[in-house]
Design brief:
The complex is a heterodimer of chains A (278) and B (401).
Chain A: H1 7-17, E1 22-28, H2 34-46, E2 52-55, H3 66-77, H4 82-93, E3 100-104, H5 106-112, H6 114-124, E4 128-131, H7 140-148, E5 152-153, E6 155-157, H8 163-172, E7 177-180, H9 196-204, E8 211-214, H10 220-227, E9 232-235, H11 237-273
Helix pairs in contact in A: 2-4, 2-11, 3-11, 4-6, 6-7, 10-11
Chain B: E1 10-11, E2 14-18, H1 24-39, H2 41-55, E3 61-63, H3 65-71, E4 75-80, H4 90-103, E5 108-113, H5 117-128, E6 132-138, H6 139-144, H7 146-154, E7 158-162, H8 169-183, E8 187-189, H9 200-208, H10 210-223, E9 229-233, H11 238-244, E10 254-262, H12 273-276, E11 278-282, E12 284-289, H13 314-321, E13 325-331, H14 332-346, H15 352-364, E14 373-378, H16 386-392
Parallel strand pairs in B: 4-14, 5-6, 5-8, 6-7, 9-10, 9-14, 10-13
Antiparallel strand pairs in B: 1-2, 2-12, 3-4, 11-12
Classes of the chains: A alpha/beta (278), B alpha/beta (401).
Chain lengths: 278, 401
């Protein structure tokens, strides 16, 4: 038996065999409480989500637009701290093997302690960790800790990243590469950039890792378009907005339904076009 | 002594570049542009020309005979940065970085501001060099610094009130970073504090160091020797590092950073980061931060909006760490007393931020021998604080009636 489960790589292999792209919902832990988050993860899996990004609240989310800022504030208010979130993941592991990625800012990780975090996250059943404001240049400590514990450290690439730098970052990354589709912070956009597919194709020249695309994707149509050239689609702010509009009682159904619609659209796009050439 | 910062912008364990990937290439571009500008005689000539003819440098080093006599100890000198065009030392850095923005052909300049002094300085140079200017300011600060908001608008800048978080300097910086993440290709982000991701702390220090270079020459001319003590208020730390950096190798010269003690250090209502902060990462650098046990940034308080930030520049955290600098905290009340004292004794109305430095001098000067020399950085003038001070003193100001 391998030492670590490596659920992210296994999931992409499994989807690749079916020529499917992954749907990755981003949900803020504790928005509006951790019990709702637990139920939401299970509902999302039922509706076709393939991996989950679990947002770790931070008081100063500098890379997030207003919808996620408010969701993060709700998560903070309900007390979704790292220990609580890890407890939630252990709880979830009794019911699901869906890959779970912690998505947050570096300071709460740093304060918890990178080694401690990687150890505790691994034993709770976390598969990947992403720190939005931690470029690879400053990431040595967290990289070492995650590696030692079989956790993937997910790195971001942006439209402003030169190809040579993408190559360097990809060389240190594992799991998948997260390509930020827009030059900007998180938040739903009416239009995605025209050259998005071109950027993703360029990154394929420098890395064999699966490529996920996120920031700005909010509709099934956009998800379908992105699925025709990327390996994964991340949806976040659209979920945060639904959580805000529908509240505790209505959000699970509404968000599940959005995810279901996205996954269906992504599958049909692949049925028409096939998997993107690697 | 090793090169500080190192090539990745580290000051010991502090500093660095902690930003989303979208901004990393812009930071490399800025670093390269700054390096080439520093070597360019034309850039240096422009900086020198505007510094002299527009900002009004050199600023005087003034001996406070009355205050010295009143306190009965060390000789007190003020470095008069309040006499810079726009009313504060912020002009030195805004000038330098605006010239850099012009050189980099960026048409739009954005800035964060707390007290509004950096926003006003940025708006001023944007007007002079014909750049579009947008300033982010916490909505709480928009209320308490209405005069500076009006000045920025007169200068042609747009002011965006920021309603998130504590509605003050910290949140204005987050919002400016968000704007820059989306606008990075054509926008220059002009940071005013000796904080933020590398290379900003170094750029701000270098452009502000003109304060200390002048003060060093002036004190040697006026006293025939180096000072014993340098005192400046600190939050991000731009005026402090500006005064003190040129003295850093003069080991006998004491450096004292004075931070905002707010309502007192026993409660949560202060911004005394050097005194009670712990290492963390915020706004692009690793430094000392006021935060809770989960790494969430704490609310701060100071009567001086320019000192109301939960962090401190990485180089200042480093100078504390290696024991080169001392630090102290001054409460709102002590700062107000110093504000009144300097106004009455010397006819100089200081900014509430600078009043913190003066307040610490009131404490230490009487303890020092009469042949000792203190230089205080009077980083800004107090006109902007009239309504805050009036309120604190229970006075109602009526306009136009």
């Amino acid at each position: 038996m391998p030492k670590f489960p490596r659920r992210i790589a296994a999931k992409f292999r499994e989807l690749g065999a079916r020529a499917e792209a992954a749907l990755i919902p981003f949900i803020v832990a504790g928005d509006p409480d951790l019990e709702t988050t637990r139920a939401l993860v299970l509902e999302l899996e039922n509706r076709g989500a393939d991996l989950i990004e679990l947002g770790v609240p931070f008081s100063d989310p500098m890379a997030d637009g207003s919808a996620n800022q408010r969701a993060i504030a709700r998560g903070l208010k309900s007390g979704a701290s790292i220990p609580e979130i890890l407890r939630l993941v252990s709880e979830l592991r009794k019911a699901t093997a869906i890959p779970i990625i912690l998505y947050g800012y570096y300071n709460p990780y740093l304060h918890y302690g990178c080694d401690q975090l990687a150890r505790d996250a691994a034993s709770a059943g976390v598969d990947g960790i992403l720190a939005v404001d931690l470029p690879p240049e400053e990431g040595a400590v967290l990289r070492k800790a995650t590696r030692a514990n079989g956790i993937d450290l997910i790195h971001l690439l942006a439209p402003t990243t030169p190809l040579e730098r993408s190559r360097e970052i990809a060389g240190r990354a594992s799991g998948f590469l997260y390509y930020v589709s827009v030059t900007g912070v998180t938040g739903a956009r009416r239009d995605l950039p025209d050259d998005l597919a071109e950027h993703v194709r360029a990154i394929r020249q420098v890395s064999d890792l699966p490529i996920g695309v996120g920031f700005g994707i909010s509709t099934p149509e956009q998800a379908a378009r992105v699925a025709s050239f990327a390996d994964a689609v991340v949806v976040g702010s659209a979920i945060s907005m639904l959580a805000e509009e529908r509240g505790r009682s209505g959000m699970i159904e509404a968000i599940g339904s959005l995810a279901g619609g996205m996954k269906t659209a992504m599958r049909s796009a692949r049925d028409v076009n096939g998997a993107p050439p690697r | 002594m090793p090169a500080i910062p190192d090539s990745h912008g580290h000051y010991g364990e502090f500093g660095g570049r902690y930003v989303a990937e979208t901004l990393m290439p812009a930071l490399f571009e800025l670093e390269a542009a700054y390096k080439s500008a520093r070597r360019d005689p034309q850039f240096r000539a422009d900086l020198e020309k505007y510094s002299r003819e527009y900002v009004g440098r050199p600023t005087p080093l003034f001996f406070c005979a009355n205050l010295t006599a009143r306190l009965g100890g060390a000789k007190i000198y003020l470095k008069r940065e309040d006499l810079c065009h726009t009313g504060a030392h912020k002009a030195n850095n805004a000038l330098g970085q605006s010239l850099l923005a012009v050189r980099m052909k960026k048409d739009r300049i954005i800035a964060e501001t707390g007290a509004g002094q950096h926003g006003v300085a940025t708006a001023t140079f944007a007007a002079l060099f014909r750049r579009r200017c947008e300033v982010f300011m916490g909505s709480l600060d928009v209320e308490r610094q209405a005069l500076n908001v009006f000045r920025m608008k007169l200068l042609g800048a747009s002011v965006h009130p920021v309603d998130s978080g504590t509605r003050s300097l910290k949140d204005s910086m987050s919002e400016a970073l968000r704007d820059w993440t989306a606008s990075v290709r054509d926008t220059y982000y002009l940071i005013g504090s000796a904080a933020g991701p590398h290379p900003y702390p170094q750029i701000v220090r270098d452009f502000q160091s003109v304060i200390g270079r002048e003060a060093r020459k002036q004190i040697i001319r006026q006293e025939g020797r180096l000072p014993n003590v340098l005192v400046a208020c600190v939050n991000g730390g731009s005026n402090a590092i500006g005064l003190m950096y040129p003295f850093i190798r003069d080991r006998a010269v004491r450096m004292i950073f004075v931070e905002a003690g707010g309502l007192g250090l026993s409660g949560p209502s202060h911004a005394a980061t050097l005194t009670s902060g712990v290492p963390g990462v915020l706004h692009g650098n690793r430094t000392l931060l006021l935060q809770d046990e989960l790494g969430q940034i704490r609310d701060t308080h100071s009567i001086a909006p320019g000192l109301d930030y939960p962090g401190v520049g990485p180089e200042l955290a480093y100078l504390k760490d290696i024991g080169r600098a001392e630090y102290a905290a001054v409460t709102d009340e002590e700062a107000l007393d110093a504000f009144k004292l300097l106004s009455e004794t010397e006819g100089i109305i200081p900014a509430l931020e600078s009043s913190h430095a003066v307040a610490h001098v009131v404490r230490i000067a009487p303890e020092l021998a009469r042949d000792q020399v203190i230089i205080v950085n009077l980083s800004g003038r107090g006109d902007k604080d009239m309504s805050t001070v009036a309120r604190a003193l229970g006075v109602t100001l009526r306009e136009g009636a």
